[in-house]
Amino acid sequence: MARTAVLGLPRIGADRELKTALEAHWAGTITSDELQEVARSLRAANLQRVAGAGVDVAPVGDFAFYDLMLDTAELVGLVAERHGGAEASGLPAHFLACRGAAGITPLEMTKWFDTNYHFLVPELEDGQQPRLRADKWLSHLREAQAAGVTARPAVIGPLTLLLLSKGDDAPLNRLAELVEVYRDLLAAFADAGAPEVQIDEPILVTGLSDDVLRAFSRAYARLLDGKPLEVTLATYFDRLDESTLAVIGSLPIDELHVDLVRAPGQLGPVLAALPSNARLSAGVIDGRNVWATDLDAALDKLDKIVRAIGADRLTIAPSCSLLHVPYSAAREQGLDDELRSWLAFGEEKLAELTLLARAIEATPAQRDELLVEARTRASERRTSPRTNDIAVRGRVGRLQLTDYDRTTPIEARLREQAERLQLPPLPTTTIGSFPQTGDIRSARREHRAGTLSDEGYEQFLRGEIAHVVREQEDLGLDVLVHGEPERNDMVEYFGEQLDGFAFSQWGWVQSYGSRCVKPPILFGDVSRPAAMTVAWWQYAQSLTAKPMKGMLTGPVTILQWSFVRDDQPRRETCTQIALAIQDEVVDLERAGAAIIQIDEAALREGLPLRAEDQDAYVAWAIDCFRLTAAPARPETQVHTHMCYSEFAEMIEHIARLDADVISLEASRSGMELLEVFRDFDYPGQIGPGVYDIHSPRVPTTDEVESLLALAETRLDRDQLWSNPDCGLKTRGWPETREALRHLVEATARRRQAKVAIPA
Length: 759
Description:
Elements: E1 3-4, H1 17-26, H2 32-52, E2 58-60, H3 68-75, H4 90-99, E3 109-111, E4 118-120, H5 135-146, E5 151-156, H6 158-163, H7 175-191, E6 196-200, H8 210-224, E7 230-234, H9 242-249, E8 255-259, H10 267-273, E9 279-285, H11 295-309, E10 314-318, H12 337-341, H13 346-361, H14 364-383, H15 390-397, H16 410-421, H17 438-449, H18 454-475, H19 492-495, E11 499-502, E12 509-512, E13 515-517, E14 521-527, H20 534-541, E15 550-553, H21 555-560, E16 563-564, H22 570-591, E17 595-599, H23 611-629, E18 637-642, H24 651-656, E19 661-664, E20 685-688, H25 701-712, H26 733-752
């Protein structure tokens, strides 16, 4: 008989209880014990959800206060010395690595594969001696045992941990030593009564070299030698290639998990390579999107597995952890019944697991009865006029190659822009948002509740914009922004004004730490009924003689940070969004905007994990950005911003964006990101972030100046801008004001300093 399992669960709480508790703890208003009690209650609720849905196996150890990669590094003692090293313990040391402190930088942060979740990058240092510290996992296991729930510990594997860490050019040299710690971990789990363990190695789907695969083979042969409990090797987000499957097929694992949503074509090769007697955990329910599963399509895969290896060797599972989806679609009473019926959040996906398990064992007649509701729902969604707009599809169909190009080369544009803008060397600016204060959030709630009128809310927002403009002028910034007080989220704000989007009330997911986002639900064809930002820009520009940036979110980022329809190619959906944003660019320019920023924070995160799939994505993603800016006149300066990313492998594609100015997050990496420009003659201008906005720590003027000086060793001064890493919405005003003052002071110093000669 097939069993069901889930690889991981959301941890922020259905009402964002963890976010509230974390921020209260950081503010000093609740104790560590109170924070721990909130965490225990959230873990207990997760176990109850799994057991209540009838799912056979629940995960433990997947809960983290901030990030599971950090927890895993702490599990094996790979902690940076500035954060306490191997002796570090307790929440203060833990949060020091997450958030930093005066004089102590936190860990670098980047995207978890191609998701919108950020992980903290462990640091490998000379002299580190891995050692086991399994208290968290053992404690969570005991909680499940006390609740009577069958649970398996879930832990990130040693290969993924090392290859995603930084600080060592040869991290695999540490693998053998690290495996011994993992062997001790398996023994500790077995001693604690765990019947099995889940070891996540998503790095295996990225296409590894032969040398890495040989190291993986040796390491896991040792890890699994004499294993004291069953081991599930979990992969997700893409397919396993032939070479990787050959290695896995030689290992004595008890179960292999594969993602059959993102990579359904791997099923045949996986079945052929599956180790003898091992179970196959089939990820047939999408753990990263919110649409109800096409159960017939899922059963086609499951039936094939049963025919090949039998139901007793089948585990039915989501494609990956449910960390990436909200808790419950049933709570979304603000959505109409039809749209809500198309959705499956975490709780609904658990129910789908048990329904599939029943259907596997059912006769054809019984299966028809079980699936009647799901089949009706799928048919209605496919044929609904809400998902099709003839005008939008016609506009896309009429596009020509010339519609993607600005007519003037970038060198000539930059000269015209310099003449128009008259900016000093190293122009100072910010990325867009300013602190979203309690007053702003309260006014937004009151407006949505109807207790603050439209007129009253508009007047409040005008006051906030005027305040932000005054602050920037007092600080001496060169290019200003309006601060975005009217925007709850850089994607949600635009989605609310575009056709084809819907919005949940409780659809929060974790981005990092206490930062949560509520992605729009993109269910239909996209168009822009009316201007979205022009009036706010016009008001802000009327308050100052300095250039005021028009601020837009780019089409790829809107696509990536939404729950996107899965019934047509993503490229087509992105092109529709691009045309809607293009309309806004045209209207901003007509209104007089000299600088328009089109943020593509998520451009890099959409890159497929396997190299052979990347060129096709990059081609259409870059095309969509170019489509938004194509109508802009040469004297209009187009900026874009991209978040934590590794750009070396796609720098030529980034140049093809044809943006006049790009801003990047570079402070946590100490400008490492700019190394790529030593060997690449980038034609535009660049704003490398000179202070980290994800930490409350305020950089000194000297620190900012040193980063600017370092940037000048990579790029010419006339190419450089001075700006923060990202938007400032999550920061408070005192730290924001002080940090920007230091930025302006440091920039003034650099303007007086001797120009560095790029190496």
